[in-house]
Amino acid sequence: MPERTAVAVVGAGYAGLSAALKLHDAGEEVLVLEAADRVGGRIFTGALADGTPVDHGGQWAGPTQHRLLGLAERFGVETFPTYADGANVELWHDGAVRHFTIAGPEDGPGMDEYIRATARIDALATTVDLENPAATPNAEDLDSETAHSYFERTVPDEDARLRLALAVQGVWTVEPRDISMLHLLFYVASAGSFEQLMEVEDCAQDSRFVAGAQAPALRIAELLGERVRLGCEVTRIEQDGDAVTLETSRGAVVADRVVFALPPSAAAKVRFSPRLPDARVRWWAKSPMGDVAKIHVAYPTPFWRERGLSGEVSAYGDPAVGVVFDNSPQDASTGVLVCFVYADRLRRWAALDGAARRAEVLDLLKRVFGEDAAEPVEYVEKIWNEDAFAGGGYAANPVPGTWIEYGERGWREPVGRIHWAGTETASVWNGYMDGAISSGYRAADEVLAARG
Predict the structure, then answer these.
(1) Which of 13, 80, 12 is nearest to 43 (CA)?
(2) What is the mean pLDDT of the segment spanning 324-340?
(3) Which contiguous run of DSSP H or E holds residue 323?
(4) 263-304 per-position pLDDT tens digit
(5) CATH superfamily of 105-198
(6) Beta strand 4-10 with 251-260: parallel, antiparallel or unpaired?
(7) Integer Cα distance of 388 and 386 in angstroms
(8) pLDDT in tens, 42-100
(9) 4-42+214-288+395-450 adopts what CATH topology?
(10) Residues 6+ apart with CB under 8 A from 125
(11) Cis, bond preceding 274 (omega within 30 deg of 0)
(12) Between 20 and 30 A from 192 (CA), which of 231, 256, 263, 434?
């Protein structure tokens, strides 16, 4: 460990790495401190037994996610379109199976009211102040009402509310009762529309990375070299007016400025002296991570494609799995389905033993795709709630009331020589890789301005 550095970056996810990259490009001395044994944070690319890359965390890129795609282009990381040919499948709570394309089955229960409800959400989202959500018109009313109570109040069709609930589970990895309408609207506005969050082509799930979504992060770390220190957990940060001292598991380092880029669950473990402002502390305390597991199930071939299916499934009711996508590699040399378990479903499913969890996932796939789905060649789980550093996923969601109580001062306002990054602090594509990168760039700009 060096004794001093101009800028210390805490966290080597996309937020921390993008901040370090911008500072490095500007000629600043920078040191990245990461507690885990890898870079990427909530982006983690593993491999199946045959070498096929699979993303256990974030994986998709949309065409309006310019910062993420810009990094991929800079470092020569290739992308390819998400497979979306053929029919999607809806498994309704009563056991009915419907095939559809694009947004949903036109004859599906509650579809008309669902479309009207999402249009109203889009209209409301245009009123959100992306730079200061607490300044949004009617912010107090919006932040005082949960998405659940809003749906109950404005959407008379129970089937439409079921569709909205799965949308919330899939995007925010929480139940509608867990987030306020202000946060939901801010998130929609930060992406551009409700459809941007939900759909594949030209939307958030448009493309994937050939080598996995961690590849740009690995290339940044390679460029930074020994400026990135792994297995280096920051335990205490002390500001004395002229500098910042960071105590870590590998010794102490003194910095002129700090970019702090940990998710709230990990940030709360670090001790600060002097104590951080109450707004900052309470913002973290009231921003729990979502609940999600991601399961990859591999087969010799993507057999569902031959049967005219896209591999995409939306499941309502009792199944643990809520959503399924085709996650096969670009050359389709292996068939891979990725399954998501969210929120209440996760809490029940995660309490089962491994064999029971596997059986429940395969049962859902067999119901949709037939007996071929019952005998995979490989099955891999990643339960993000059990991750020692993330503590959940995809992102932290401030509970109702948090934006209006602590947002203006606690969201991302610098505290002395400490600047805050992380996808939760982004105004555009909040909660996504692109948002993490933009937050890193913003924090780096703050540091560069402060250092003249």
Answers:
(1) 13
(2) 98
(3) strand 321-326
(4) 999 999 999 999 999 999 999 999 999 999 999 999 999 999
(5) Guanine Nucleotide Dissociation Inhibitor, domain 1 (1.10.405.10)
(6) parallel
(7) 6
(8) 999 999 999 999 999 999 999 999 999 999 999 999 999 999 999 999 999 999 999 99
(9) FAD/NAD(P)-binding domain (3.50.50)
(10) 185, 186, 188, 189, 193, 194
(11) yes
(12) 263
Long-range contacts of 51-55, Cβ-Cβ distance < 8 Å, separation of 24 or more: 52/298, 52/329, 52/333, 52/334, 52/336, 53/210, 53/211, 53/212, 53/329, 54/212, 54/296, 54/327, 54/336, 54/338, 54/380, 55/208, 55/209, 55/212, 55/213, 55/214, 55/327
Residue 274 phi, psi dihedral angles, 5° rounding: -65, 170
**Reduced to 3 states, what is the DSSP secondary structure of residue 19?**
helix
Q: What does the alpha-carbon distance between residue 391 and residue 147 come to, in Å, rounded to a whole number? A: 23
3-state secondary structure of 415: strand
Copy the structure tokens of residue 436. Answer: 């993490």
Query: In residues, how long is the chain?
Result: 452
The overall pTM is greater than 0.90: yes
205-225 per-position pLDDT tens digit: 999 999 999 999 999 999 999
Q: Find the mean pLDDT for residues 231-250.
A: 96
